[in-house]
Specification:
binds flavin mononucleotide, 206 residues, five-stranded antiparallel sheet, single chain, alpha+beta, 17% strand, NADH Oxidase
Amino acid sequence: MIEKIPPPEFGAVTAPAHPSEAARRLLALRRSLSPDLMQAPGPDAQTLDQILEIAARVPDHRKIVPFRFLVFEGEGRARAGDMLAARFAAANPEAPPNMVEIERRRFLRAPAVVAVIARIDHQHKTPAWEQELTNGAVCLNMLLAASAYGFAGCWLTEWYSYDEAFAADLGLTQGERAAGFVYLGSAREPPRERQRPALADIVRRF
Ligand SMILES: Cc1cc2nc3c(=O)[nH]c(=O)nc-3n(C[C@H](O)[C@H](O)[C@H](O)COP(=O)(O)O)c2cc1C
């Protein structure tokens, strides 16, 4: 068990920065890993709680917490897969059985999957766009935290993030939607670096 770094008490004086070569290394080298290349172990319950606590520690305009988590572990992954397969089969009656089986096994690709559920308040003074940005920050922060705890991660939406019937199966309420399903686990194979934008193509200075 990695010892938890306790979050500061409300109102406590906190460090304005945390210079760290290890943190720079993580940020400079972090890479997603396809769930197809993941294997056990995943984070244990206490470690996952720590990862989620860090993931939730994001900029959030007016502190409205426009997100929540759905955790799929153990048998819960198979139950969600059964629901997904049923939805897929209903929507695609011509689909061959092997394609339905792919859906049934989707959440079994990794030892743990966390759905970040965006609960956007469209009536709130904070624009929906900003609430959505906070959800993106949560997903990335989860990948960073997982990496710091020694786990690979991957942020996916795939088709089921946009399927309203499956969202209802998962208990999402009206207006809620998945910002992503973050797959977490150990690496069966290491990832290879992907293409990155050249700074010259994306930076203009005023
Ligand atoms: C919101 C969002 C949704 C994504 N959904 C998918 C997806 O459904 N399927 C996929 O192959 N990659 C998807 N990706 C991309 C993977 O996360 C990708 O492997 C990752 O961006 C690789 O970059 P990295 O190594 O810098 O993390 C998505 C990325 C984002 C930000």
